[in-house]
């Protein structure tokens, strides 16, 4: 992680929420985490590596469509990750998105294409 700048502060907070003493991993063992944000491929790869090291799946899934389409469940979801994680998370994607695009098996691929 980097040490200064607004983007770096956001990255630090994201890692703290996920991997800190009171974070997602410490609070339980989720089977898979879906990252719906647009962070860039490097962050997606780092997050995937950390979650997988903790035994948790990770899907890189940036969305487009804005608030009105989100409220209607009509976002476009672009995602990448291992097939087992995709199968587990597909109901969540279908709940928020009307267009669902699988890019590939590797974290960062969806970020690169969005």
SSE class: alpha/beta
What is the number of strand segments?
Answer: 5
Could you say which overall geometry the principal axes of the C-alpha atoms support?
globular
Q: Given the structure, what is the number of helices?
A: 6
CATH superfamily: NAD(P)-binding Rossmann-like Domain
Overall tally of structural domains: 1
Biggest sheet strand line-up? 3-4-5
Instruction: Provide the succession of SSEs.
Output: HHEHEEHEHEH
Using the coordinates shown, work out and report the CATH topology.
Answer: Rossmann fold
CATH classification, class level: Alpha Beta
Helix content: 40-55%
Query: Biggest sheet, in brief?
Result: 3 strands, mixed
CATH architecture: 3-Layer(aba) Sandwich
**Strand fraction:** 15-25%
CA-to-CA gap between the ends? 23 Å
Residue stretches low in confidence (pLDDT < 50, at least 5 long) are 1-5
Q: Round the mean pLDDT to the nearest integer and report it.
A: 87
Rg measurement, Å: 14 Å
Give your account of this protein's structure:
The chain has 114 residues and is an alpha/beta fold. The chain is 50% helix and 21% strand. The protein has a single domain (30-113), classed as Rossmann fold. The chain is globular and about 35 Å long. The model is unreliable at 1-5 (pLDDT under 50).
């Amino acid at each position: 992680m980097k040490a200064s700048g607004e983007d770096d502060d956001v990255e630090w907070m994201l890692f703290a929420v996920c991997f800190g003493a009171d974070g997602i991993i410490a609070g339980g063992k989720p089977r898979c985490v879906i990252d719906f944000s647009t962070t860039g491929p490097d962050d997606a790869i780092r997050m995937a590596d950390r979650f997988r090291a903790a035994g948790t799946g990770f899907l890189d899934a940036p969305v487009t469509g804005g608030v009105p389409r989100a409220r209607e469940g009509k976002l476009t979801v672009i995602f990448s990750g291992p097939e087992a994680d995709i199968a587990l998370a597909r109901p969540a994607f279908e709940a928020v998105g009307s267009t669902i695009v699988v890019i590939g098996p590797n974290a960062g691929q969806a970020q690169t294409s969005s």
